[in-house]
User: Which sequence fits this backbone?
């Protein structure tokens, strides 16, 4: 009988030791936080907040770059050129020796965009921050420019309405039509004599649309910078949200 009991006791001791090792290992694993997922899942609220913060940073940086003197004029990526619909006017004006007027007009065209951008910041910011929670993760994982494209698709009409009066005021402030009217008047006068087509492009609509396009281009650059460069993520929320994107 004693011969049977001894092996059973030994076996019990061995099982207990193994069980203790397993428990200690599990406890150690829990203590170090090791699990199948080391990154806490993002909530919709965090995603939207992060995207809004990123766009707020992008908007502010973009306006800071474009609303200063030469912000549009000296930036070839967004510079407003002579209206394409009236390019024949430009060619004729240069032919007539009106180079100075043409250059002044193009400079002032960009001054209007710079002025409008400065005045329209609060309206522009309110419009682009109106984002649906449902679209949050799609935008987050949509790649470079995804948030900017979403905002452009969903806010362009509102932005045009918001920008138009600001552009109109800016055009008046920088006296854009003072440089435009002599050029277009002479051109249309020549068209009357030759029977050619007169041109009268809407400068307000032209400046408004290109100012908005230029801002969106700059916002996209800022968005992509935050997506790609950890240094550009200036808050813990931006680091968490954009750091979660799978490469």
Assistant:
């Amino acid at each position: 009988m004693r011969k049977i009991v001894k092996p059973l006791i030994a076996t019990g001791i061995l099982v207990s030791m193994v069980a203790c090792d397993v428990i200690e290992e599990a406890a150690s694993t829990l203590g170090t936080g090791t699990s199948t997922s080391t990154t806490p899942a993002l909530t919709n609220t965090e995603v939207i907040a992060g995207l809004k913060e990123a766009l707020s940073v992008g908007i502010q940086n973009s306006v800071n770059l474009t609303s200063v003197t030469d912000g549009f004029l000296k930036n070839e990526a967004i510079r407003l050129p002579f209206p394409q619909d009236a390019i024949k006017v430009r060619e004729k004006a240069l032919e007539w020796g009106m180079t100075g007027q043409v250059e002044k007009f193009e400079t002032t065209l960009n001054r209007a965009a710079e002025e409008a951008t400065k005045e329209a910041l609060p309206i522009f910011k309110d419009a682009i921050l109106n984002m649906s929670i449902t679209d949050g993760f799609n935008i987050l994982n949509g790649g470079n420019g995804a948030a900017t494209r979403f905002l452009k698709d969903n806010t362009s009409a509102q932005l045009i309405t918001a920008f138009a009066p600001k552009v109109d005021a800016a055009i008046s402030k920088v006296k854009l039509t003072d440089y435009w009217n002599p050029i277009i008047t002479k051109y249309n006068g020549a068209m009357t004599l030759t029977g050619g087509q007169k041109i009268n492009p809407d400068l307000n609509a032209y400046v408004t649309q290109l100012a908005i396009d230029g801002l969106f281009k700059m916002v996209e650059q800022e968005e992509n910078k935050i997506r790609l460069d950890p240094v550009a993520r200036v808050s813990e929320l931006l680091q968490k949200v954009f750091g979660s994107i799978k490469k």
Observations:
- Confidence is low (pLDDT under 50) at residues 1-37.
- The chain has two domains: 1-38, 41-243.
- The two ends are 68 Å apart (CA to CA).
